[in-house]
Design a protein that fits this description.
The protein is α+β, with helices and mostly antiparallel strands and 218 residues long. It is built from three helices and five strands. Strand 1 and strand 2 form a beta hairpin. Helix 1 packs across helix 2 and helix 1 packs across helix 3. It is elongated, with a radius of gyration of 41 Å.
């Protein structure tokens, strides 16, 4: 009887141990899967951490470039003002217009950054607006500002030519002076001219003598 009881107890214990072992194996399998998942997640995070460091370095580089560009922008803006002042002084000597001069005033924002320019015109010792000038005087100021930008941004390094069109308000003598005024700024100057302007040194191009073809003929 004791042997039977012990055998029964043994069988029950084996069954319980087998069930417990099965549970343990299931837990081990589950934990192994969780571990693999966490390891994969860790690898992803480590990879992202590397990317974060790369992005931080890229951000620092971009911030440095942005700051350098801001400084260059402000430098060019101030240089433009200086070029306008210089070009205007020379233009006044060349053309002797009916106004005292013109300049660019710098406008800054709350961060002390240049955000705009105001064109200030002087006539008879006081400030006035450009609308009070004649068309020829406004045209002259426009040319002066354009040339100042041409010099400031070194356009001649990329485009060694100045094309002046629509200067119909300038008198013939002033057009000749304008060509002299711009002669040192470009390798080639092209402008519309009056027939009577024969004192300008250069090559004359007469559209009436051109042989033209249409796009279909090509």
């Amino acid at each position: 009887d004791q042997v039977s009881e012990l055998e029964a107890d043994l069988e029950q214990a084996e069954t319980e141990l087998s069930e417990e072992l099965t549970d343990i194996k299931s837990d081990i399998k589950l934990k192994t899967q969780e571990l693999e998942t966490q390891q994969n997640r860790l690898q992803e995070l480590e990879s992202k951490q590397d990317n974060v460091e790369e992005l931080r370095e890229e951000i620092n580089i971009n911030e440095d470039e942005i700051e350098a560009l801001k400084e260059r922008k402000e430098s060019k803006q101030r240089e433009l003002k200086s070029q306008v002042d210089e070009a205007m002084a020379t233009a006044l000597d060349y053309f002797a217009p009916g106004f005292d001069g013109a300049r660019l005033d710098i406008k800054v924002n709350k961060e002390n950054e240049i955000e705009a320019f105001d064109l200030i015109v002087a006539r008879d010792g006081r400030e006035t607006t450009i609308n009070t000038l004649s068309e020829a005087e406004r045209e002259l100021i426009g040319i002066v500002v354009a040339i100042a930008g041409y010099r400031t941004f070194e356009v001649s390094d990329r485009v060694p030519m100045i094309l002046l069109d629509g200067v119909s308000q300038l008198a013939a003598d002033n057009l000749r002076l304008l060509c002299e005024y711009l002669s040192d700024d470009t390798e080639m100057l092209v402008t519309t001219a009056y027939p009577e302007v024969n004192v300008i040194d250069g090559n004359r191009i007469d559209p009436s003598e051109w042989n033209t073809i249409s796009e279909e003929d090509t």
